[in-house]
TrEMBL record:
It holds the Pfam family Epimerase. GO terms for cellular component: cytoplasm. This is Epimerase/dehydratase WbiG. CDD domains: UDP_G4E_4_SDR_e. It comes from Caballeronia glebae. GO terms for molecular function: aldehyde dehydrogenase (NAD+) activity. Residues 8-221 form the NAD-dependent epimerase/dehydratase domain. Gene3D superfamilies: NAD(P)-binding Rossmann-like Domain. InterPro entries: Epimerase_deHydtase, NAD(P)-bd_dom_sf, NAD(P)-dependent_oxidoreduct.
Amino acid sequence: MSETGRRIAITGANGFVGRAVSRALLERGIGARGLVRRDAQCEPGVDVRHIESLDAIAPDAFAGCDAVIHLAARVHVMADAAAQSQAVLEAYRAINVDGTLAAAESARRAGVTRFVMVSSIKALGESDPGRPFTEDDARNPPDAYGMSKAEAEVKLLEFGSRTGMEIAIVRPPLVYGPGVRANFLSMMSAIARGIPLPLGAIDARRSLVSVDNLASATIECALDPAAAGRLFHVTDGDDPSVADLARKLGERLGKPARLVPVPVGLLRGLGRLTGRTAQIDRLTGSLRLDSRRIRETLGWRAPQSLDEGLAATAAWFRSTRGR
């Protein structure tokens, strides 16, 4: 079947990644069906179907679709102690594990043959073991969100083995791009305002993936027969240090980053004193991914370089600030 005859369903089509996937599908002439809540807004051209929850999707919502790209998830991670409580873990499991399996079963009943789940590097850990993580490394999630994603990976692959549905899983690191929020947006805002950042002494390296690269890889996993039953890491192919990332952003924002070389040991001590140990560990520890498998198995190549992705993100940021 040609690409123009295909239709792919997207859960969470209204989100940061979902919008990028929707745009990429439509640009390729592939139909995009968005499964979202009633108050959600999707990209123009998306065939919207409203759902109440992941575990209440009727099979006809997936009718006529060749594949599903599953993005809907509970993603907010609370403070360190709270993120480990049993009640919080169950809340994550209800959506990220049980909801995922329910959506896959509904899609299977509708005759969908391929189900792609976007997971997270947090299924493996918070920092790498002195080398880039591979897809075969043992799962050691650091919090309730990571635990739920790790469990979803295992159970979804088991579901595929049991039912014959083709499962593919994509694990991204930090995702950035136009429309980004959270810590990445905070860093850009601080750089643009000339606020000194205590990052000058941090040489930890972090893998990144632009939202457009992630969309491209995820679509490839939905289309390529070789992706069935596989798990893939997806990155830009460049692992800048935290300090280098700030400098690159400063260059593209036209506002040189003001980096103060605060010793890493001092930052970690301050993290313990202020109850921000996890945040400081994320900032000062390396988290790199080996993404050779998707390149070697599917022949996928990132369409956007790190510099191009950062330039697009900075341009969006300036446009939202009226500059």
